[in-house]
Amino acid sequence: MNLTPKEIVEYLDKYVISQNDAKKTIALALRTRYRRMQLSEELQDEIMPKNILMIGSTGVGKTEISRRLAKMMKVPFIKVEASKYTEVGFVGRDVESMVRDLVVSSIAIVKAEKEEKNREKIENYVINKIVEKLLPPLPSGASESKQDDYQRLLEAMEKRVIAGEMDDKIIELEIQKIHVEFNDTNLPPEMAKVQESFSKVFSQMNKEDNKQEVTVKDAKSILKTEASAKLLDSTNINAEALKRAEDGGIIFLDEIDKIAVSEKSQGRNDPSKEGVQRDLLPIVEGSSVTTKYGVINTDHILFIAAGAFHVSKPSDLIPELQGRFPLRVELESLTEDTLYKILTQTKNSLLNQYEALLSVEGVKLVFEDAAIHAIAKLAHRTNELTEDIGARRLHTVIEKVLEEVSFSADEYKDEEFIITSELVHEKLDVVVENDDLSRYIL
Ligand SMILES: Nc1ncnc2c1ncn2[C@@H]1O[C@H](COP(=O)(O)OP(=O)(O)OP(=O)(O)O)[C@@H](O)[C@H]1O
Ligand SMILES: [Mg+2]
């Protein structure tokens, strides 16, 4: 969490090409939260996060930036589509459920950390349980030498279980449903609690039915869940998770333009869009939301909203909501050069993905540099001629180029298949320049 803005941008550079303004703004926002946490509590309360609005047409990296951030920062993070919410009273998900989702994500993080810390304990629990099943217990009153023998047997068995030698053996396990979680965050927390107690009672009544024959391998993972539920203090985890979501949580509100009501289409619009915006206000501004795990205050949660704003504009959002996203960043549309870099300089780029996929068939795919330039050029050209769908165009273009070799990969087994610029042009020129064709194919 304590990465400097520079380090955050450097990390993002590995996956997202250009869009430097957006990267910088977000990196700075994250660092500001780290700085805040170092201050006295009194000051901490005063400093509110500055929410960010990312504006950029489709396929230029808005979601990608946030996806990568989430992976890197081990902070509670969720991405939600604004368009899936409906006003309270309408059918659909209510807006507060996003905060509950955030808490759930926070719990997962904290839990994973605790499990890592207690790994040895958990492993011991698992192994002991399995060994117990595999070795019948010693009858009571066994002689001392018998007990010694048994002890040796136990240890030998432990080793074999750990080494995975017993993985295929079948054992009988009482599957305890101690931790029936209802993580349908759309339910009011009170309801979720009731449901949970019901299922607890049920699982206790059905103990006998819960006996199952499983392989040792499966038992390991089943028992692991059981162990972490038993050994880790869930009250503790929940409290810490709530706190972390409160202080460090990030909610990424994608497709926010879809709930804006543009002047042009007014009247034909779903009236609940504006309602969703109104429901969003208190959450973005800071309010208390009740979750199954306790009450969470949303004051310091950082909101990053993103949208293409093709049809509507940021000014079509209700003024109060606009005001709550003071930082605006625009993402540039992608040039031919950027597209080329996306293909060649990103980690796990599309080209690498296809190379890896075809290597499974024994085909070594080689892209000539000129061919990559050609792909970028034609993708850019298609974006200009038809719709600008940004980097997503690369997918369709490459798919078209590789169509044949992908289909008949078996014919090229153990061979190199070189993608030349001639091949790219041969496959694409006709399609790109023919408006009707490219609208359907690319
Ligand atoms: N600047 C970029 N650098 C690297 N990859 C990119 C970039 N822009 C887009 N991509 C790639 O294009 C695909 C789509 O990008 P992304 O999901 O970020 O689009 P978006 O801006 O969120 O669009 P939308 O408005 O449609 O949601 C992703 O697979 C991503 O890897
Ligand atoms: Mg997106």
β-sheet strand percentage: 5-15%
Low-confidence stretches: none
Largest β-sheet summary: 5 strands, parallel
User: Quick one: how many beta strands?
Assistant: 11
- SSE order in H/E notation? HHHEHEHHHEHEHHEHEEEHEHHEHHEHH
So, CATH architecture of the largest domain? 3-Layer(aba) Sandwich
Radius of gyration: 28 Å
Q: Please identify the structural class as seen in this structure.
A: alpha/beta
Residue-averaged pLDDT, rounded?
87
| CATH fold call of the largest domain | Rossmann fold
**How many individual domains?**
3
What shape does the CA trace take?
A: globular
Bound molecules: adenosine-5'-triphosphate, magnesium ion
Please bin the fraction of helical residues: 40-55%
Helix segment tally? 18
CATH class of the largest domain: Alpha Beta
| Measured distance between first and last alpha carbons | 41 Å
The CATH superfamily of the largest domain is known as P-loop containing nucleotide triphosphate hydrolases
Side-by-side strand order of the widest sheet: 2-5-8-1-9
Describe what this molecule looks like in 3D.
The protein has 3 domains: 5-107 and 241-330, Rossmann fold (3-Layer(aba) Sandwich), CATH 3.40.50.300; 119-231, no CATH class; 336-433, Helicase, Ruva Protein, domain 3, CATH 1.10.8.60. It is built from 18 helices and 11 strands. It has helices at 5-13, 20-37, 41-46, 62-72, 97-117, 119-134, 144-163, 189-205, 216-231, 234-248, 272-285, 319-323, 336-345, 350-359, 369-385, 392-407, 421-433, 435-441, and strands at residues 52-55, 77-81, 170-174, 211-215, 250-254, 288-291, 294-297, 302-307, 327-330, 364-367, 416-419. A 5-stranded parallel β-sheet has the order 2-5-8-1-9, sandwiched between helices. A two-stranded antiparallel sheet has the order 3-4. A two-stranded antiparallel sheet has the order 6-7. Bound molecules: adenosine-5'-triphosphate and magnesium ion (MG). Adenosine-5'-triphosphate binds at residues 16-19, 56, 58-64, 308, 342, 346, 390-392.
